[in-house]
Amino acid sequence: MPRVDLSAQIPTVAGLTPSFTAASTSGSGGGFSYSNNGDQHLRIKNASGSPITGTIKLPYTTIQGATITEPTFTVAATTGDVILPRLNPSFYNQNDGKVYVELSAVTSVTGAVLQP
């Protein structure tokens, strides 16, 4: 199953209770994606019994001959809740204008994209 494409949720003056969507297959090609204009935050929650690692996939692996390491983050077990910062589209967007986030495991892992 490919990565799950998330749509941005925008709060109103009445507030927003985010809707979270289950992640797809772990590893290469799995996880989440979202259209990125540089003003969104990806929030990932982990209710499983083990921590997971997320990798923000970059559209390139080198710049002017220098190897670029893809950023990683950890979401703690059971009550893990991580919010990624706004990501610059020039650095993080794939050719389709989306950010890709791969996850080491997906059982009981959900995500939501929030746009202020």
Detailed description of the structure:
The protein is mostly beta strands and about 120 residues long. Helix content is about 5%, strand content about 40%. It has one helix and twelve strands. The model has no long low-confidence stretch (mean pLDDT about 95). The longest helix has 4 residues, at about 90. The chain has one domain (about 5-115). The strands form three sheets. Strands 1-4-11-6-9 form a five-stranded mixed beta sheet, with no helix packed on it.
Question: Helices and strands in order, then pairings?
Answer:
Elements: E1 4-6, E2 8-9, E3 21-22, E4 32-35, E5 41-46, E6 52-57, E7 62-63, E8 66-67, E9 72-75, E10 80-83, H1 89-92, E11 98-103, E12 109-114
Secondary-structure element order, N to C: EEEEEEEEEEHEE
Structural class: mainly beta
Strand order in the largest sheet: 1-4-11-6-9
Beta content comes to: 35-45%
Summed up, the domain count is 1
> How widely separated are the two ends?
30 Å
Low-confidence stretches: none
- Helix residue percentage: under 10%
Report Rg. Answer: 14 Å
Largest sheet: 5 strands, mixed
Averaged pLDDT, please? 94
> How many helices does DSSP assign?
1
Question: Can you count the beta strands?
Answer: 12
Shape: globular
Features:
5-stranded mixed sheet, single chain, mainly beta, globular, 116 residues
Give a quick summary of the entry:
This protein has 116 residues and is mostly beta strands. Helices cover 3% and strands 41% of the residues.
